[in-house]
Amino acid sequence: MSAAPKFKNNVKISERHGAGEWKLEKLALLALMPLGLWVLSSGFTLAGADYGAVVAWFGSTLNAGLLAVTAVVFYLFASLAWKVIIEDYVPASSRSGLVLVSNLVFLVLAAASVFFIVRLALGSAPLPAGV
Q: Measured between alpha carbons, how far is residue 104 from residues 8, 9, 20, 76 in Å?
């Protein structure tokens, strides 16, 4: 026999993890606001710059670190947002598989972003020549 549902102010309290994910999504969005403005201003600053200037910009530990944090937070936010979309609009039979695939895609994108940012920060080309 299952426990009786819990209520607060005559509203049923969620028995799952939705509130925690909602808070995490809002915190990620809050972090993305200043980081996005920083990325935008950096993009305008680097517009028209030569390759050496861009490599020097990536060579700065602060710039590379902030860019890596921005990428990870962005993909976390995107993953949570797509999970909500899938849960709201996809039939239950294929929902869990799609959530798993989308989480895997965003994890790979975040890892690839950090990998290429670190490569640029260390002064090597993003990809080997000829690729």
A: 36, 38, 20, 11
Residue with tokens 């939705």: 18
Tokens in use for 15? 């028995």
Enumerate residues 6+ apart whose C-beta is below 8 A from 28: 73, 76, 77, 80
CA distance 52 to 79: 34
Please state the three-class secondary structure of 26-62 as a single string: HHHHHHHHHHHHHHHHHHHHHCCCCHHHHHHHHHCHH
* Strand residues in the chain grouped as ranges (E): 7-8, 11-12
* pLDDT tens for the chain, residues 1 to 131: 556 667 777 766 666 667 788 899 999 999 999 999 999 999 999 999 998 999 899 999 999 999 999 999 999 999 999 999 998 899 989 999 999 999 999 999 999 999 999 998 998 876 776 65
> Is 61 in contact with 121 (CB distance < 8 Å)?
yes
